[in-house]
Design a protein that fits this description.
Elements lengths: L19 H4 L4 H8 L5 H13 L12
This protein binds zinc ion.
């Protein structure tokens, strides 16, 4: 199964949500939060994908701490 970026048709790595160029457009604090693997991790990813679906630019995406 080919893993694709949540924000574009490019491939992404296992355990990642976005391809490298999309990831690089997130703010550092959003990157840090998305890198955390805790009880809220799934909620953050859902929030990320919801924002991308509603057209929020990558640089303006924010997720819960
Ligand atoms: Zn991408």
């Amino acid at each position: 199964m080919k893993l694709t970026c949540l924000a574009c048709p490019a491939a992404r790595g296992v355990g990642q949500y976005l391809c490298r160029s999309c990831w690089a457009q997130l703010t550092p604090s959003t990157q840090r939060r998305l890198n955390k693997r805790d009880a809220k991790a799934f909620e953050r990813v859902r929030s990320l994908s919801r924002q991308l679906q509603s057209g929020v630019p990558l640089a303006e995406v924010s997720v819960a701490a």
